[in-house]
UniProtKB/TrEMBL annotation:
It comes from Paralcaligenes ureilyticus. One of its GO terms (molecular function) is glutaminyl-tRNA synthase (glutamine-hydrolyzing) activity. This is Glutamyl-tRNA(Gln) amidotransferase subunit A. Allows the formation of correctly charged Gln-tRNA(Gln) through the transamidation of misacylated Glu-tRNA(Gln) in organisms which lack glutaminyl-tRNA synthetase. The reaction takes place in the presence of glutamine and ATP through an activated gamma-phospho-Glu-tRNA(Gln). Heterotrimer of A, B and C subunits.
Length: 508
């Protein structure tokens, strides 16, 4: 007897799921039970906390709204949240022993917005501890496995989110991107993900890593599915001091990104839909460190865009290599400040044995934090210390401004969007860099500059690589500030022309 795919995976988009729900062909309870069963049976270690009672409660509420005919846009859609968003009911651990038993009394803004839109949460997703990592190997609860090959990493820090979507456990998931942590796992797992402009999505209730860099973003299979989530997630929040009230003169509210997406679609013609679009290709992205299989996939994707009418323009982002040292000064500095609150006094792990207050704090942190978090705290504390602040932190901030200026010069003078690789290689085997913990930092070279500049960027599948040509490759599309709708429309056109986003693990 042929194997039947789980019910929630029999629809190829959120739009198709919504149509089936509204036609009462399926119920939210049916979809929730199907997703719960898949999540509980999975061996990927993508989920950290599943509570069927909480999930089915949300599903029953969704079915009631559907029956009443007043269903919001994501009503009944099964999703899951990266475990750095605080949630009522489900534990919020940030994949750390420091918060192993923490349950929040309130929901993060992103969680609340998606719940108000009717989405049904299946649970909390594994990630690198406090979102610090590029492979999802730093979780205190074990690494997430890549659905394409369980011996390989899914990328980080939102590896659980990308793996859950790629494996068909949920229709979409939330993630966070500090230096590439939505785009990189999306690329390595063969799904789509977008980091919006910094400040467009509220950080309220998101466990902080680097406050001037952290930004929430969705992961899903298609660009249109990303639009469904991001348009709901976006909006001004007075509880977040970095939240933007307006985006280039337009109110930062739900509907902005969808309106821009629709406008961009209307501008596409029939014969050459992307005629007039100038694509900047940074020469610094195609250096000796870029693997040949990744370079070939990116080149093929660029040729697809040219066939759709776009024009390729070679540009220069001369400070690309400086993004690594700048980021790994600024982000650890902010992390060392943000993580001071975990002292064993108010909340978080407290050591069982200690002599005085100083020893309690020291032991609690040593026991509660993993090695990568401790490493970044030490780096951050050092660069902020007296005598080194000017030499390291201020210099890094100056370089950050220069990197942002490089992007602005490119957009002003040469191109409308920028394209290139997300990562230098396909996914690596789990544990391959265990003896060289900072080697993963180098894999972020193509994503860090965008985060330092606060620009929107996304990853979409564009090929397969690796020894057996069975590991996904992602194309990065970078836009100017507040251009999320345009990026999603460009990605959607590519996905109408190619089928890389439809490839699934084991079906390549």
């Amino acid at each position: 007897m042929p194997k039947t795919n789980p019910l929630h995976t029999q629809f190829d988009s959120i739009e198709a799921l919504r149509a089936a729900l509204q036609a009462r062909e399926v119920t939210a309870i049916d979809l929730a039970n199907s997703a719960l069963a898949a999540a509980q049976a999975s061996s990927l270690n993508a989920f950290l906390h599943i509570d069927p009672e909480l999930t089915l409660g949300q599903a029953r509420a969704a079915d009631a709204m559907l029956a009443a005919g007043n269903a919001p846009p994501l009503c009944g859609i099964p999703i899951a949240h990266k475990d750095v968003f605080v949630t009522q009911g489900w534990r919020t651990t940030a994949a750390s022993k420091m918060l192993a038993d923490y349950t929040s009394p309130y929901d993060a803004a992103v969680v609340h917005r998606l719940m108000q839109a009717g989405a049904v949460s299946i649970g909390k997703l594994n990630c690198d501890e406090f979102a610090m990592g590029s492979g999802n190997e730093n979780s205190a609860f074990g690494p997430v496995k890549n659905p394409w090959n369980p011996n390989f990493v899914p990328g980080g820090s939102s590896g659980g989110s990308a793996a859950a979507v790629a494996a068909g456990l949920v229709a979409a998931a939330t993630g966070t991107d500090t230096g590439g942590s939505v785009r990189q796992p999306a690329a390595l797992c063969g799904v789509s993900g977008i980091k919006p402009t910094y400040g467009t999505v509220s950080r309220f209730g998101m466990v902080a890593f680097g406050s001037s860099l952290d930004q929430a973003g969705p992961i899903a299979r298609h660009a249109k599915d990303l639009l469904e989530l991001l348009d709901v997630m976006s909006g001004f929040d007075e509880r977040d001091s970095t939240s933007l009230e307006t985006c280039d003169g337009v109110a930062n509210a739900s509907g902005r990104i969808r309106a821009d997406f629709n406008t961009a679609l209307q501008q596409q013609t029939t014969s050459l839909p992307l005629a007039g679009l100038r694509i900047g290709v940074p020469k610094e992205f195609f250096n000796a460190g870029l693997a040949s299989d990744v370079a070939q996939a990116i080149e093929a994707a660029l040729q697809v865009f040219e066939s759709l009418g776009a024009k390729r323009v070679t540009i220069s982002l001369p400070r690309t290599e400086l993004s690594i040292p700048a980021y790994y000064v600024i982000a650890p500095a902010e992390a060392s400040s943000n993580l001071q609150r975990y002292d064993g006094v108010r909340y978080g792990h407290r050591a069982a044995q200690y002599g005085d207050l100083a020893e309690m704090t020291s032991r609690s942190r040593s026991e509660g934090f993993g090695p990568e978090v401790l490493r970044r705290i030490m780096v951050g504390t050092y660069v902020l210390s007296h005598g080194y602040y000017d030499a390291y932190y201020l210099q890094a901030q100056r370089v950050r401004r220069m990197i942002a200026n490089d992007f602005q010069s490119a957009f002003a003078e040469h191109c409308d969007v920028i394209m290139g690789p997300v990562t230098p290689t396909v996914a690596k085997p789990i544990g391959v860099n265990r003896d060289n913990p900072t080697a993963d930092w180098l894999a972020d070279i193509y994503t860090l500059g965008i985060s330092l500049a606060g620009l929107p960027a996304m990853s979409i599948p564009c090929g397969l690589g690796g020894t057996a040509r069975d590991l996904p490759i992602g194309l990065q599309i970078i836009g100017n500030y507040f251009s999320e709708g345009q990026l999603l429309a460009i990605a959607d056109r590519f996905q109408q022309t190619t089928d890389w986003h439809q490839r699934k693990p084991g079906q390549q």
